C-alpha cells in the first residue's frame, strides 16, 4: 500500500471522528458520572460504531450491485446518502434541543447544580454513538466506488475505529476540563452542550448538500 493511500485513510478517519469528538466534549462537559471506565466505554462504542457504519454502507451497495446491477447500486447510493444525512441531523438536533430546553427551564426556575446535573446512561451512549456515526454509511458508499477493495476496506475500518477512539478519549477529558469553568453552573454547561449538538446537526446537513467536506 502506498503512502498516499495510507494518508488518505488517515485523513478520512480524522474527518469521520470529528462528529464523535464534538459529542464526546459535550458528554465530558455535562455528565457527572463519567468515570475513567465509562469514558473508555463511551470512546469504544463511538469508535466501533463509527467504523462499522462505513463497512455497512460498503456491503449494502456491493449486495445491491451484485443482485440488481451497477446502475441500481448508484441509485441506492444517492438515496442512502440523503437518508442517513437526515437521520443523523434529526437525532442530533433532537438531543441538542432537549439539552437546551432543559437548561433554559433550569435557569428560569433558578435550580441548583444537583437539579440540572445529567447522568449518562448506556442507552444514551448508544443513541449518541449512532447519531454521530450513521452519516458514515455514506462514506462506505463512496468507498465502494473509490479506491477501496475488499482488502483495503478492512484497513479503513480498523484505522477509523482507532482514530475515533483516541479522539473521543481526548474529547471526554477536554469536556471535564471545561466543566471546571462552569463549576456550580451546570445549567450553563448543559446549554453549551446543547448548542454544540445543534450546530453539529446543522453542519452535517450543510456538508451533505453543499459539499463542504
Topology of helices and strands:
Elements (H helix, E strand, L loop, with lengths): L2 H28 L5 H32 L2 H39 L4 H4 L5 H12 L3 H8 L7 H30 L4 H25 L3
Describe the fold and architecture:
The chain is an all-alpha fold and 213 residues long. It has eight helices and no strands. The chain has one domain. It has helices spanning 3-30, 36-67, 70-108, 113-116, 122-133, 137-144, 152-181, 186-210. Helix 1 runs antiparallel to helix 5 (122-133), helix 2 (36-67) crosses helix 6 (137-144) and helix 3 runs antiparallel to helix 8. The longest helix is centred in the middle third of the chain and has 39 residues, at 70-108. It is globular, with a radius of gyration of 18 Å. The two termini are 25 Å apart.
Task: Output the keywords.
213 residues, mainly alpha, 8 helices, 0% strand, globular
Beta-strand portion reads under 5%
Number of domains as seen in the coordinates: 1
CA gyration radius, whole angstroms: 18 Å
Number of strands: 0
Cα(first) to Cα(last) distance is: 25 Å
- Stretches where pLDDT is under 50 for at least 5 consecutive residues are 112-116
Number of helices: 8
Determine the structural class based on helices, strands and strand pairing. Answer: mainly alpha
Percent helix among the residues? over 70%
Largest sheet: none
The geometry reads as globular
Topology pattern, helix = H, strand = E: HHHHHHHH
